[in-house]
Amino acid sequence: MVSRVHNRRIVPVTNVGLRRLDISPSGTPLRRKKWMHPTSLKLLARQLADGLRGEHDAFCRELVRLLASGHPVTRAQLATVLQMTVEQVAEVLAYLSDLEVDHRGNVIGWGLTLVPTPHRFQVHGKSLYTWCALDALTYPVLLHLPARVESFCPINGTEVSLSVTPTGICDLTPPGAVVSLVIPVQGQSCTCDRGSFCAQGHFFSSRRDAAVWQGARPDGRILSVEDAYRLGKLVIRYRYEGMTELEPT
After folding, report:
1. Which of 5, 157, 177, 208 sees the fewest Cβ atoms within 10 Å?
2. pLDDT digits over 100-158, tens only?
């Protein structure tokens, strides 16, 4: 999604009303309310935005937007859009960990990618992919584009699919699907450690399946898909607030 960092340390989020899955004595997941309280959601979004924010956020945002075309992005394209020199672009790109490039040195992936991942992201009739589940829910808001998302539960292989627009989600299958994430440390920069952050963002077919993953990731959090979408929308607002939108060139 969205700027992350080399050697990022992941820490548990403070208590903001997002509890781990409750289990009854018989082992059956207990019924939980569907929605997080708005105040808790906003606090969690602030924590996530602070942990992801970096000095190259404007650069990273435009890179994702260019990748949404479904074609490799050249340094010259970035230079034109961002009003930078090609040399300045190259310097920033060298700073981004896990950046995916082709044999010509063109960017083919950073958060949004042309390289297949478990999270298919279809826009403009083209199949792209995202590095994590939260990206798949957030990019339609960032890009102002509707998308069809198809992923699968890493526990049982069940397909999870939905349509995502800048204003909401629909056609979620299965309807009880949930999303996992971890909260990065505040004050890191615009790079991306896929192992510690992105690779922990999954779609699960149910909370019961998510609890299996969470057993090995006690710092992990589970949200309904609806809450994860609302969270991502708030993160975009908080992370990019005050940042100037670039005029199309």
Report:
1. 157
2. 999 999 999 999 999 999 999 999 899 999 999 999 999 999 999 999 999 999 999 99
Domain 38-240, second-level architecture = 2-Layer Sandwich (3.30)
Q: Residue by residue, what is the 3-state secondary structure of the chain?
A: CCCECCCCCECCCCCCCCCCCCECCCCCECCCCCCCCHHHHHHHHHHHHHHHCCCCHHHHHHHHHHHCCCCCECHHHHHHHHCCCHHHHHHHHHHCCCCEECCCCCEEEECEECCCCCEEEEECCEEEEECCHHHHHHHHHHHCCCEEEEEECCCCCCEEEEEEECCEEEEEECCCCEEEECCECCCCCCECCCCCCHHHCCEECCHHHHHHHHHHCCCCEEEEHHHHHHHHHHHHHHHHCCCCCCCCC
Q: Does 102 participate in catalysis according to the annotation? A: no
- Please pick, among 60, 190, 192, 198, the residue that the annotation labels catalytic: 198
* pTM confidence score: 0.81
135 is catalytic: yes
From 135, 193, 209, 227, active-site residue:
135
Known catalytic residue: 198? yes
